[in-house]
Amino acid sequence: MKSVLPSAPRIALLMEGTRNYERGLLRGIAKYTNLHGPWQFYRHVPYLPDQHVSPVELVRTWQPDGLIIRESEHYDELLDLPMPVMYVPTTEPRSGLSNIVVNDYAVGRMAAQHLYESGLRHFAFCGMNALFFWSRLRCEGFCETLSEYGHEVSIFESSQGDEFLNRNDEFETLQQWLRDLPSQTGLMVCTDDFSLLVQEACLAVGRSIPEEIALIGVGNDEAVCDLTTTPMSSVSLNTERAGYDAAEQLARQLSRGTRRSHKQTKPVNVVVEPLRVVARRSTDATLTFDPDVSTAIAFINERINYPIEVNDVVNAVSLSRRALYDHFKSVTGQTISAYIRERRVEHFARLLLETNLTIAEIAYAMGYDTDTNIARLFQKTRGMTPHAFRRKFGGNTTTG
């Protein structure tokens, strides 16, 4: 175990780590300190004897150099202490502080694109927009993207916050809303936790997932998504990278003077970007649509690591090339060749983030003669080079 040096920065880390979002941030903070530390962390552990001591009293006892705080009414008084703060908001970002916030609008867009490209043509959003800024922004990104495609969105808004997860009277209103949605609706829910409740409500009113309602959440909490009746698709967030960047930003503030107040420094927000949709059975188009198109999509997904052509897909189904082309375009809104290209680029992006292979090695593994063509296509569709994508969204141990 690494010894803590006397000069190590003392950081009060006031996040519970009970949710996947917080755990991802904590992993990123740990990665930064393992590379650039050590830091000495102080945590409030509720079951220890100091559990009845207020957080303010604890922090004054610890005398930390900086704070990383998840929003809580118990911590408000700490924000006036003369030290740098990285703030993780729940209801609204705090002006004058460096906030850690999700690019929620982009999250909504990503979910909308996934559902639309799955062939769905009815859409709905379930959130807590009146209470939380991130729910409002996810709804905006979702609705505006689908408006660009010419579709409207049915919206259900809970006004109960976390209390709604305890199945209050509003649960019956949610059930009625779900009953009224048309079949083959793509439904985005603002968080994975809320998605679990929505899935239970669907089961209660006899709406099957994904045959009638295709469901997608946010956060990719595997403890939720993989343990539901129907495994649930979700937008994965790059929380680990954001935690790393937040620690780096706090280190910059500390380097200017360990007792410098956040009110004397210029706030710099850290943004958590969406990575990708982790598709599970809850949005599986192969269970929902035209059987020939479903067969074609399954064929493409099974061979995504190989340079397949449109003729390969046609040979896998019982339709003629023209008939399959028309059916496929009608269901997915894309041509077969465009669908193959997009899924291949998504797979390439996933390998950039999840492996230490070089870009040339990934290209070779996917059947490209060189990395030039896929790099050019990637930049055209993603707006940045593969190297830039890996630097922005990946960890800090991958190779070039």
TrEMBL record:
Residues 294-392 form the HTH araC/xylS-type domain. Keywords: DNA-binding, Transcription, Transcription regulation. CDD domains: PBP1_XylR. SUPFAM superfamilies: Homeodomain-like, Periplasmic binding protein-like I. GO terms for molecular function: DNA-binding transcription factor activity; transcription cis-regulatory region binding. InterPro entries: Homeodomain-like_sf, HTH_AraC, LacI/GalR-like_sensor, Peripla_BP_I. SMART domains: HTH_ARAC. It comes from the Bacteria. This is DNA-binding transcriptional regulator.
